[in-house]
Design brief:
single chain
Length: about 110
């Protein structure tokens, strides 16, 4: 087991997506932080975080909480009453508009 130092963070997230994550954490008997750490660590290694049984649970939670967002929506969301800001309109050709093959170097020109 690896010992780490955790910090409290205040992250804004779309409401139904957060409900799905909280529901999944409860289902898996994990804290929300542990669930997010696992998702991120898998993503950083290009791995899928969930197998087919858990993906079925996620689909049901998305249905229950009315979350119709997909990976194609990433970086395309804006808050109600606010215009799209930087990183939300990817029509400039930078990145892909999604996490799929987006690379930070696309933004810096490297």
């Amino acid at each position: 087991m690896t010992t780490v130092e955790r910090v409290q963070t205040g992250v804004r997230m779309e409401r139904s997506l957060l409900k799905v994550l909280k529901g999944l954490a409860e289902y898996l008997d994990l804290s929300l932080g542990d669930l997010l750490e696992g998702i991120v660590l898998h993503a950083f290694e290009g791995e899928q975080a969930f197998g087919p049984p858990t993906l079925e649970v996620i689909a049901e939670l998305k249905r229950i909480y009315g979350c119709d967002l997909t990976a194609a929506d990433s970086h395309q969301l804006s808050e109600a009453g606010e215009p799209a800001g930087p990183g939300q309109d990817r029509s400039d050709g930078g990145g892909t508009g999604g996490w799929g093959v987006w690379d930070w170097r696309d933004e810096s020109g490297a």
